[in-house]
Amino acid sequence: MSESVAEDLRAHAFLAGLPEGTVDIIAGCARWATFDTGQLLLREGEPADTLHLVHRGRVVIEMHQPGDGGLSIETVGAGHVVGISWVSPPYRWQFDARALEPVTTMAVDVGQLRAELGRRPALGFALLDRLASVLAERLQSTRIRVLDLHRLDDDRPR
Amino acid sequence: MMTVRAEPTPEPRTGHSPLTPAPYRVVGRRAEVGDVVTLSLEPAGTSLAPDFVHGQFNMVTAFGVGEVAISISSAPGAAGPIEHSIRDVGAVTHALCSAPIGAVLGVRGPFGTGWEVDHFEDGVDVVVVAGGIGLAPLRGAVRDLVDRQRGGRGRLFVVAGARSPDQILYAEDLEAWRDAGAHVVVTVDVGTPEWEGPVGVVTTPLPALPFDPSRAVALTCGPEVMMRFVARSLVDRGVDPSRIRVSLERNMQCAIGICGHCQLGPLLVCRDGPVVPYGGTADTLFMERRR
């Protein structure tokens, strides 16, 4: 475990409020990862094996079009997480995630993390509680966008 | 502490009855994004355009077609004509958007309450959140708030949302405000392969926006569902609900609080709005359901 990973994990918004010892356990599964502009952090269809806690830079979550560019779904930055498909079957990435600029993440090995969660149900609960918040935020954002609020203005004849 | 309250409607100073349109000539016409056109209007006669405050609206007439409420998108006191940005969504707005330079339109106003930007205490951060054409009633205010920041009187944060990159209204203004030192975030609901800015609804950037919520003032305009989520998100950040102001939109007809077409709960939006505080006013109005 790199001490600097542990320090920065403790400061990361996703893990805020977790006991220090708990963060150290997660840090034991983590390493620094860097991505150049345009490089993929995750590729749709591949095994979901890493949880990225974004430390620096912006990442776009997107769906690629065959023979064309990607359709942007959401952008996230420092303090956010990328890669939550490992939580539920089929444990494969559902979208691509691409660095919009040089990106640094704390990449948590999900295989190791699962083993730790199996031994420590309280850690599992704490982590899933945070992941549920991320999922709820993204669901809420998606619901608002499905409403296409700008259309509501367009449809009011004047 | 600043109190945010609904102002009484200033007396229109058109030299006419508030129900009689004054003739204004189209002296400029700029196609914005999508179906939005910005018209520059000057009084057609010898009278001067009346004073107005940020956030007020005029009733603009296309003679022979009809009249519609349009927010003023230029800044009060600025040299030059009054500007209105209009989205072509119906018969009246289509006629207005099609008006050529030189055409004469009718204008009544200004009406309604304003953003009260001149009342903000020095040092407080101002957060402006706009969706789509909701940026139009805020544009003049933002211009003055950029000057306020330049003068060291308080920071300015602008979050502008659009459906897609090609629908970003006032893109040049947004860039100029950023260049002038404002913290500007432009986010789109649906990105494109070329778009490398933020993708997400306008509430998404708010949790990480580096303003001081303890004394911040927030102004928001856009679809009312959007404003509801924006206001809640700002309150979650710690902004006092009474320091959040929203701009309501209803079917304004008389614009002087007589006809009742724009009634929303206890308010006549043309007279008591369009700008109202969120805390104690819009928070309950936003929860009104059709009876």
Explain what the structure shows:
The complex is a heterodimer of chains A (158) and B (291). Chain A is α+β, with helices and mostly antiparallel strands. Chain A has helices spanning 3-11, 20-27, 110-119, 121-147, 149-154, and strands at residues 30-35, 40-42, 50-56, 59-64, 70-76, 81-82, 96-99, 103-109. Chain A has a single domain, classed as Jelly Rolls, CATH 2.60.120.10. Chain A is 38% helix and 27% strand. In chain A, the strands form 2 sheets. Chain A has a 4-stranded antiparallel sheet. In chain A, strands 2-7-4-5 form a 4-stranded antiparallel sheet, with no helix packed on it. The longest helix of chain A is centred in the C-terminal third of the chain and has 27 residues, at 121-147. The model of chain A has no long low-confidence stretch (mean pLDDT 89). Chain B is an alpha/beta fold. Chain B has 2 domains: 22-111, Translation factors (Elongation Factor Tu (Ef-tu), domain 3, Beta Barrel); 117-285, Nucleotide-binding domain of ferredoxin-NADP reductase (FNR) module (Rossmann fold). Chain B has a 6-stranded antiparallel sheet. Chain B has a 6-stranded mixed sheet with strand order 9-8-7-10-11-14, sandwiched between helices. A two-stranded antiparallel ribbon of chain B has the order 12-13. In chain B, a hairpin with a 3-residue loop joins strand 3 and strand 4. The longest helix of chain B has 15 residues, at 136-150. Chain B is globular, with a radius of gyration of 18 Å. The interface between A and B is medium-sized, with 29 and 35 residues.
